[in-house]
Write a structure and sequence with these properties.
The protein has helices at about 10-15, 40-60, 60-75, 80-90, 95-115, 150-165, 175-185, 205-210, 225-235, 260-270, 285-305, 315-330, 365, 380-390, 405-415, 450-455; strands spanning about 20-25, 30-35, 120-125, 130-135, 140-145, 165-170, 195-200, 215-220, 240-245, 250, 280-285, 335-340, 355, 375-380, 395, 395-400, 420, 435-440, 440, 455-465. It is of the alpha/beta class.
Length: about 475
């Protein structure tokens, strides 16, 4: 339901029976039910955004930047409340949720600064003419965002789309609908009416939005949903931006400290309970250090399980998927050195799990598990590990731990992914962007390049007319082809 001055009472009443029910991931207790938008509400949101888009596109970039700064201030003021909703709906610890919201504030501020300096290019042509490009907004952008870092990811797309002059319809994940609505209520007042709308719902609402006559579809989420959105965009002509699933490999060379490598692996596999797009999903470790590495990673997992630092998965459906991958590996001969079983008690907890003896035939190595699972495959040489790391249909990110510059350069050249991380599983400079490959998506995500994704380019050629004293026009040779 749009969180602006739109009359959605009828839509809410019609959708109330098919609302989204959210349970606390820690206790299993039902928290609330949030109504879903119906087809009429979706159509109304598109109409309102379409009406608001021209004036927002005509606003000066500095004016749009000022609005984004106001939105960032409002988000910062509401951080504690939003972090509490994030913890309630997804199970993410409040301090981690606050860190994500802090990143979102910084992202909005970044795009507020970039908006006035987002520029075109001059083109070399006739010396008496001017050729240049102008960036223009597409129009109406639909943003479909995930639950695993819901505020930070959403604000990356929101900031870039609004900075470039698009009107925005945001559909947050159905796994955190109350948080998504609250985020809309915080941000929308910073912009003119109709420029930023929020619509709640699940896959049906996402399909309705994707099939609407809008200009941009930006999606962060599963590869299956991304493929459906890409097909919808192909039919409507919308520009599609996707960051989708990943099965990110970690390649551990023989010349690194195994304890340090295990710490990196644990950070990559267990942070946010493995529910990060670029989590470590599969590990290839050189045989020479495999025993020490595996023992150290087992100890890291055991420590996290003992101190209760592994938060619950978002819901029971996600836990069922994670455990199905683990059970498949165990049935095919893998060993659970730590974890690997569904715990007793309420909620959707799953322990940090270390699996040895894994092969690429196992789902836990071939698919995106999206849980706190570290599957290990031992390889005889760096080349063997790199070959395995390059396999699969995803292409989001990969990490290489090595002191061998030749191996590092070889991996950078060979890995078919959008981001290669060397000797650090997470991190990177502010403003970084990448282009996912394969089933992991397409188009730049984040950074200054995302402004280009939300813009169309117009080429302008201006020639001087013949002056009153110049009776001959330019020669044909000077004409632009």
């Amino acid at each position: 339901m749009p969180t602006t001055a739109i009359d959605t009472a009828a839509g809410r009443e019609a959708a109330a029976a098919a609302g989204i029910t959210i349970s606390d991931p820690r206790t299993g207790e039902v928290l609330w039910t949030v109504p879903e938008a119906d087809a009429g509400t979706v159509a109304q949101a598109v109409e309102v955004a379409r009406s608001a888009a021209p004036d927002w596109a005509a606003a000066a970039p500095a004016e749009r930047g000022a609005a984004l700064k106001a939105a960032a201030r409002a988000l910062d003021a509401a951080a504690r409340e939003l972090a509490g909703l994030n913890a309630s709906e997804t199970g993410r610890p409040v301090e981690e949720a606050l860190a994500g919201i802090g990143a979102a504030v910084s992202t909005l501020e970044q795009y507020a600064e970039l908006a006035p300096v987002h520029r075109g290019h001059s083109l070399r042509g006739n010396r008496l003419a001017a050729d240049y490009t102008v960036a223009e907004p597409h129009g109406v952008a639909v943003l479909l965002t995930p639950w695993n870092d819901p505020v930070a990811v959403a604000c990356g797309l929101i900031g870039a789309a609004l900075a470039t002059g698009n009107a925005v319809i945001h559909k947050p994940s159905e796994r955190c609908p109350r948080l998504g609505e609250a985020l809309g209520e915080v941000l929308a007042p910073a912009f003119p009416p109709g420029v930023f709308l929020t619509v709640s719902g699940g896959a049906v609402v996402g399909a309705l939005l994707s099939q609407s006559e809008v200009d941009v579809l930006a999606h962060v989420g599963s590869s299956a949903a991304g493929a459906r959105i890409a097909r919808a965009g192909a039919l409507t002509g919308a520009h599609v931006i996707r960051e989708n699933g990943g099965n990110d490999p970690l390649l551990v060379d023989r010349d690194v400290d195994p304890a340090w490598a295990a710490e990196q692996a644990a950070i990559g596999a267990f942070s946010n309970s493995g529910q990060i797009c670029t989590s470590v999903e599969r590990i290839y470790v050189h045989r020479d250090i495999a025993e020490d590495f595996t023992a150290a990673l087992q100890a890291e997992a055991a420590r996290r399980n003992a101190d209760g630092s592994v938060a619950p998965l978002v819901d029971l459906r996600m836990r069922d998927q994670v455990h199905a991958h683990v059970a498949d590996a165990l049935e095919q001969g893998a060993r659970a050195l730590e974890g690997g079983a569904v715990p007793d008690g309420p909620g959707s907890f799953y322990p940090a799990t270390v699996l040895s003896g894994c092969t690429d035939r196992m789902q836990v190595m071939a698919e995106e598990t999206f849980g706190p699972v570290a599957p290990i495959q031992v390889v005889d040489t760096f080349d063997d590990g790199l070959r395995q790391a390059c396999s699969g249909r995803y292409g989001l990110a990969a990490t290489v731990l090595s002191s061998n510059i030749a191996h590092i350069q070889q991996a950078v050249a060979a890995l078919p992914v959008g981001t290669v991380k060397v000797n650090e599983v997470f991190g990177g400079a502010p403003g970084g962007a990448a282009q996912p490959r394969g089933e992991s998506g397409a188009g730049f995500g984040y950074g200054p390049e995302l402004l280009d994704e939300f813009s169309r380019v117009k080429v302008v050629h201006i020639a001087a007319p013949p002056s009153a004293t110049d009776e001959s026009p330019h020669s044909p040779e000077e004409a632009r082809p």
